[in-house]
Each structure stands twice: as C-alpha cells, then as structure tokens.
Specification:
The chain is an alpha/beta fold and 263 residues long. Helix content is 53%, strand content 10%. The protein folds into two domains: 144 residues, Rossmann fold (3-Layer(aba) Sandwich); 112 residues, no CATH class. The protein is elongated, with a radius of gyration of 19 Å.
C-alpha cells in the first residue's frame, strides 16, 4: 500500500530549466542591444564559461555532493550557516562577474564593467521568472489528503527556499520538506532517503519517489528499495539506471497509484 509520495522539486514540479533559459534570454538581450552580439551565442558562451569556472573552485566537490549546478551559482546568495556555503557566498559575486565577462570576451567584447552589470541583472531576472509545470497544482490538489507528501530536493537551503518563496503556493502541500544542504548529503546518497522515511515514519515499500533525474532521484530511490517514478517529459535517453516506472506527464501517477494500491 502506497501511503506517501516523495517529490523532487526542480524540473519535476518547478520548471527550473525554463526559468534559467528565460533569465538568460532577458539578460543576453541587454547585451544584444548594447553591443549587437547574438543573444543565443552569448548564452552558450556564458554557460560554457560558468561550467569551467565552477569546476575550478575548491567548493566544487561539495556542490557535487549536495547537488548545486553552475547556473544556480549564477543567481544564488548562499546565506547558509555552514562553512562550505560561506565559501560559496564569498566566491559567488566574482564567479558571476567572471562568467559573464568571459562570455562577452568570447564574442569579442572586452568590458568587465558591463560583465558585472549583466551578472547582477541575471539573478533579478531569474527571481522574476518562476515557472511551474501546468499540471503541478492539479496533481498536488488531487493527492493532498489521500497521501502524505514530502519534498526531497538537492541544493542550498537558502536557494531552494528562495525558489519556494517565489512560488509560495507549493509549500502548504507538503508535510515535510528535506533540502540536501541542510541534511548534509544530497541525492543519490541513501542516507537522505532513509532520513526522509524516518521523518514520515514509513517503510520503503509504502513510498513512491517521483523525479526527473536518473542519477539522483531514481538511483537514490532504487538503492534504498523505494519504488521510483521517472518523469521523462522530454524523451531523454535512459542510461544504466532503470526506474521502476517511467511517465511523460504527472497525471500518469493516478492510474499507477490505483494499480499499486489494488495489490
């Protein structure tokens, strides 16, 4: 009998990739207007510079363990009370400026002051552009009351809570919210799944984990024996990680739950 559903946040309920894409588009448009550079080319150049810089910092292995990607680094403040987050907070302003300045340089524009301006603009744009999948609230409305709901998300508590504060309608649906940066390890580490189970007072066979990432959500759930549901909206290729179930739309959870609860 399934009693609870654990949901991932980014790109499962919140459409984070779209928010980042739109924030890039709005910020790069400013550069297009100022210098005539191609906005799409600038986005690609900044993304590439950001990835390279991000992996060069001493905090990189920590961000890998907690699950914080380079583009979250371009807008997060990391006001978390922990040594590694304090380092990230120190690094972030330079990181942002360097990434945007390097991206501009790649397109032949050498203007660090403008790089700084764009670096400061991007976080504002991202905060103004929270996207939620259209089915998210319908699904949560239908599940609330019938199942216990837990949000299990990788990231900095400060940044994940910022995402939740700009989409405040999400929070009341959840009985518990577990953020990897507060717990100390991220998905797919089995300990964070075990922690979530203990918070809910449930056994592994009473839970479904729903997420978009095979290497974190699905791998982690599989490791501890929780049934996993991979939401694959964009027809991604499956790798060696095999989910218990695969769906393209969150509404496909309903027949799945009916079937599981008949058993």
């Amino acid at each position: 009998m399934i009693k609870a559903i654990f949901f991932d946040l980014d790109d499962t309920l919140l459409w984070d990739q779209k928010s980042i894409k739109e924030a890039f588009a709005a910020t790069c448009k400013v550069a297009e207007e100022r210098y005539g550079v191609d906005a799409n080319e600038l986005e690609e150049a900044v993304r590439e510079a950001a990835r390279n810089l991000y992996s060069s910092y001493e905090t990189y292995s920590f961000t890998q363990m907690i699950g914080i990607n380079p583009f979250e680094g371009l807008w997060g403040d990391f006001l978390d009370d922990q040594d590694d987050f304090r380092k990230m907070k120190e690094i972030a302003p330079d990181y942002r400026k360097e990434a945007w300045t390097a991206g501009l340089k790649e397109l032949g524009v050498d203007d660090p002051e403008f790089g700084y301006e764009l670096a400061e603009r991007f976080p504002q744009e991202r905060r103004n552009l929270p996207f939620v999948y259209e089915e998210t609230f319908n699904i949560l409305d239908s599940l609330k009351g019938k199942y216990q709901l837990l949000l299990l998300t990788n990231g900095s508590p400060d940044l994940q809570n910022t995402k939740l504060s700009i989409t405040p309608e999400l929070v009341p649906y959840f009985d518990q919210i577990v953020i990897s940066g507060a717990f100390g390890r991220g998905k797919p580490d089995s300990s964070i799944f075990e922690h979530a189970l203990s918070l809910m007072g449930l056994e592994k066979d009473e839970v479904l984990m729903v997420g978009d990432n095979l290497m974190t959500d699905i791998l982690g759930a599989n490791t501890v024996g929780i049934k996993s549901v991979w939401i694959n909206r964009h027809d991604k290729e499956r790798n060696e990680v095999v989910p218990t179930y695969e769906i393209k739309h969150l509404e496909e959870l309903f027949p799945l739950l009916d079937e599981l609860n008949k058993k």
